[in-house]
Amino acid sequence: MFRLCKICATPFEGRRRNQAIMRDVSPEEAIYQGLNDEELMERLGYRDLQAFRALYQRFGSLVYSTCLRIVRDSQVAEDVTQEIFLRIWRKPERYVSQRGRFLTWLTSVTRNRAVDEIRSRNRRFRHETASPEEQEREIAGPETNDPALTAVLADQRRLIVAAMAGLPAEQRQVIELAYFGGLTQAEISERLSQPLGTVKTRIRLGMQKLRAALAPEFEWEER
Question: Above 70 in pLDDT, residue 97?
């Protein structure tokens, strides 16, 4: 049975790869179908329901299939797909066109949300099957024994390593000492025999460059 998008009532059936019912399109729909992704997102900022419908029809199948590859459950993939589009409708300003293509951003949002769902389900399962003593000791952490999740995390690590490699050597050095070496800024200053103000500036500039480089891949909706 076809499910409907909660916002625009567009037909959706994930188990058939979100293929919409074939029908004639109106002249108005044809106009919206001719707009590019960024133009549709701009119209979403004005609560344009027809723009949302066009976006949903354009990318619903992609979002669903991406979710399904990660969560491996058609019902969960459908639910996550609906949630992603609901968040896009509520917060279209989360996408910033100057930072990259909409498709890149949407793919990142989809992947991150699907991974979050796996983590949440695994935490619930561990908690529900643990003894009372184990439940008290349980500390939630990323699940890495799932092949799909492992692949996603490995992909993210490669992106971070590549972004770090693009930093100036002095900025990369202080960031590695702070975030991978666990040193405080004062300890870094002492180790490198550099003024504390210089260390702080290099960390700040380096982190700004990392955020700019990784924003299209890691930006996500409000939780």
Answer: yes
- Domain boundaries defined on the chain: 3-101, 166-223
**CB-CB neighbours of 193 under 10 Å:** 6
The domain defined by 3-101 carries CATH number 1.10.1740.10:
yes
What does the alpha-carbon distance between residue 217 and residue 157 come to, in Å, rounded to a whole number?
Answer: 11
Nearest to 106 by CA among 152, 164, 157, 55: 55
Identify the architecture of domain 166-223 in CATH.
Orthogonal Bundle (1.10)
pTM, 2 dp: 0.53
Question: In the chain, where does DSSP find H-type helix?
Answer: 27-33, 37-44, 49-71, 74-90, 102-129, 132-137, 147-165, 169-175, 185-192, 196-218
**Distance between CA atoms of residues 54 and 81, nearest Å:** 15
Phi, psi (rounded to 5 degrees) for 3: -95, 160
**What is the structure's pLDDT at 147?**
59
Buried b (16+ CB within 10 A) or exposed e, 122-148: beeeeeeeeeeeeeeeeeeeebeebeb
Beta bridge partners of 4: 11
pLDDT (tens digit per residue) in 46-84: 989 999 999 998 999 999 998 988 888 888 899 999 999
Closest to 6 (Cα-Cα) out of 53, 38, 46? 53
